[in-house]
Amino acid sequence: MQIRDRYAPSPTGLQHIGGIRTALFNYLFAKSRGGQFILRLEDTDRTRFDLSFVQNLYDTFEWLGIKWDEGPDVGGPVGPYIQSERFELYKKYAAELIAKDKAYYCFCSAERLDKIREEREKALAEGSSGSHETGYDRHCRGIGAAEAAERVKTGEAYTIRLKIPLGESTKFHDHLLGDIEWKNDDMNPDPVLLKSDGFPTYHLANIVDDHLMGITHVLRAQEWLSSTPLHVIMYAAFGWEHPEYCHLPMVMGQDGKKLSKRHGATSIDEFRRQGYIPEALLNYVALLGASYEEGKDIYTLDELAARFSLDKLNKAPAIFDYKKLEWYNGQYIRMKSDAELAELCLPYAIEAGLFGNAGDTSASGNAPSQGEILSPGEVPSPGKAPSQGEVPSPEQRRIFTAAMPLIKERLVFLHEAAEKLGYLFSEPPVPAAEEFIPKKADLPQAVSLLRQGRDLVKPLAEAADDAGAEAFIKEWAEKNGVKLGDLMMPLRVAITGARVSPPLFGSLRILGADKALARVDRALAAL
Ligand code: GLU
Ligand code: ZN
Question: Known catalytic residue: 261?
C-alpha cells in the first residue's frame, strides 16, 4: 500500500511541542514506509486565523528541517492544500449527504439553540432530565425533504447537520488503543457539518479532504479521539473507506497534567530563542511516546525514519522532561565542529551585543529577556539580520570561532556563548581585591602570586597547546614551591575577571601575551 499521511494544523496559534510531535511522527511514519507526508492547512476557523501563525508554521518547520512532499507551498496533485480555498467542495459534499438522507437542514436560530442548550445543561445539573443528553435536540431532523427544500429556496438561513444513526454503535480500530466502540446515542447529537455562512466545520472539511487527498493513515493527538466515531459515521454515510487511525499518547508535564505554559516553554519559538539546536529538539520529541533501540539516545532524522513503526509507540502518556531536552542540546552542541558551533551561536551573541552594541543604546533596553514570548518573526535565526548589536569584525569572528573549544564541553544553550566569552571581547572590570585571594592566603600573598603569574603569561600564551602550557606551569610551580592552584587563581581572575571561567590556557592563547599582560598590570595596579 502506498502510505499517505498528513499534518493538518489549524493556524490559530504558534507551533508547539504537541504539534511538531504529531508532524514528526507522521513524517517518520511516511518515510519509514516509502510514503508521502502532506501538509494541509485547516483554516476553517476564520475568527481565530492569523497569517502570522501560517508564517510561524513555515518558519518552524524550515528551522527543524522537516519537509513535506505535498503542501500549500510546494503544491501536489490533490491541492489546493488550504481548506479556505476548497470551500465550494465542502458545500458540494454536504449537499451529497443531504441527497443521501444522511444529513439534514436545520433552521433553528442561534437564540433557540442557546436556549435549549441552557435548559438541557440545567436539567442535567439538577438530575431532572430523563436523558443524559446535552446540546442540540434534533428539532429539525424530522422536517420532510420537500418542506426543507422549499424553506431553503425561500432563503431561510440554515445549517446542515449530520444524521447520526440512532440505536446503533460505531466501531473502529485504533492501532494503539485497540478496538473502540461508541454508542451513537451517546454522541454529540447531530453535529453541524456546514455552518449558516456556508463554511464547513472541522469534521466535514477534515474527512472530505482526507478522502480526496488519499490519506491512508491518520496519526493525531489523543484529544481528537472523541471525534473519530463521528468521522467513521461520515465515511460510512459517503460510502467511503475510512483511513487507519492511530491516536498518539498525550504529552504531559512532570506533574501528569497536559503540557502547558505552566511547565515551561511549549512554543517552538521559545525553544529557539532559548538556544536549542533543532536536531536536539527533534531527537527528543521523536522519543515522546515512542521507543526505538535499547541504549541508543542519539538519532538523526534518517535513523529515526529507518526505525519508526507504529508498533514502537507507547500507550502511556509521554512525560516531557525539560532536563532531558537540555541534555540532548548539550550532546548536539558537542557533536558540532568549532566552525559549525560558532555559526550557530553567532546570532545570539550578536543580539546580546558581544561584539559591541549598535549605535542606538536605547535598543538594549528593549532586549527581550530569555524565555519571554515573542511574536513570530522576532526569533534570532542564523542568516537573518540581528535585531540589535553589531556584527563581528573579521578578527572578532576569528576569535569567536577559536574560543569554541573553551566552552563546547559545558555549553547547554547556544545563547550562553556570549555570557561565557564576554571577557575575550572587552576588558572585564577588575574584580574586588578579595576575589584574587586564594584560600588560606592574604592580599600581599595574592599580589605576590599574581606577580609570579605575570612572568608566566608570555610562555603560557605562546605554548602550542594546553598540554604544553600545563607541563610548563606545573614544572615552574614545583621548582618554586608554589601550589599550582594558588598560582593560577589570581591569574585567572586578572585575565577573565572571574574565579570561574572557561579554561585559562586557551584563553591566554586566544588573547595573546600583550593583551593578557595589560590585564595583569591593570589588576596589579588596582590591588
Ligand atoms: N485541524 C486539526 C488540528 O488542529 C486536525 C486534527 C486532525 O489531525 O484531524 O489539529
Ligand atoms: Zn434545528
Answer: yes
Mutate to test the pocket of ligand 1, among 5, 10, 230 (most ligand atoms within 8 A of CB): 10
Q: Which residues contact 259 (CB under 8 A, 6 or more apart)?
A: 17, 18, 251, 252, 253, 266, 320
**What is the rounded CA–CA span in Å between residue 259 and residue 319?**
8
- Cβ of 231 closer than 6 Å to ligand 1, yes or no, is no
Residue found by looking up cell 499534518 in the block: 7
Which pTM was predicted?
Answer: 0.89
CB–CB of 341/406 below 8 Å?
no
Quote the DSSP letter at residue 67.
-
Q: Ligand 1 in contact with 6 (CB < 6 A)?
A: no
Q: How would you write the pLDDT of the chain (527 residues) with one tens digit per residue?
A: 899 999 999 999 999 999 999 999 999 999 999 999 999 999 998 888 899 999 999 999 999 999 999 999 999 999 999 999 999 999 999 999 999 999 999 999 999 999 988 888 888 777 765 555 678 999 999 999 999 999 999 999 999 999 999 999 999 999 999 999 999 999 999 999 999 999 999 999 999 999 999 999 999 999 999 999 999 999 999 999 999 999 999 999 999 999 988 898 899 999 999 999 999 999 999 999 999 988 899 999 999 999 999 999 999 999 999 999 999 999 999 999 999 999 999 999 999 999 987 644 333 333 333 333 333 344 444 434 445 789 999 999 999 999 999 999 999 999 999 999 999 999 999 999 999 999 989 999 999 999 999 999 999 999 999 999 999 999 999 999 999 999 999 999 999 999 999 999 999 999 999 999 999 999 999 98
Give the position, in ligand 1's atom list, of the atom nearest the Cα of 22.
Answer: 8
